[in-house]
């Protein structure tokens, strides 16, 4: 089902990590609109509700009013000006979140055509850990993985050895 290509490798790692920490009997609020990975979660037996496309920097009402038992946030915090505000608004005690890691050899992602598809933050793992801890979360498990490409050049070679994605399972303190 998943081959070792983008985004399938990322989806495979994310699903395995999720399955290690979240039961299909638990309901999930996935931050962000319905997306290919929220559909994969549903296909795997998870009950998933997504936020509706509101600007989460301004409107956290869906998060605050959710009855879900787990919140997932896959590659969304880098798009927010204030991920701290969103993390504080989560009521559930369980969080599974992933972020792209800051790469010293590559600048932050910025779409030239889509004003919403920009990274305000690309974290180092310790920065994301501190953000979570300050927002009241204790990291229980974490994992990193690379994102190699089949292109030629220095940066593609470095991507074989340098982790690109970081995922955590955290519980409310």
Automatic annotation (TrEMBL):
InterPro entries with a match to the protein in the record: SAM-dependent_MTases_sf (IPR029063)
Biological processes per GO annotation: methylation
GO molecular-function terms, A-Z: methyltransferase activity
UniProt keyword list: Methyltransferase, Transferase
Name of protein: Methyltransferase
Organism of provenance: Aestuariibaculum marinum
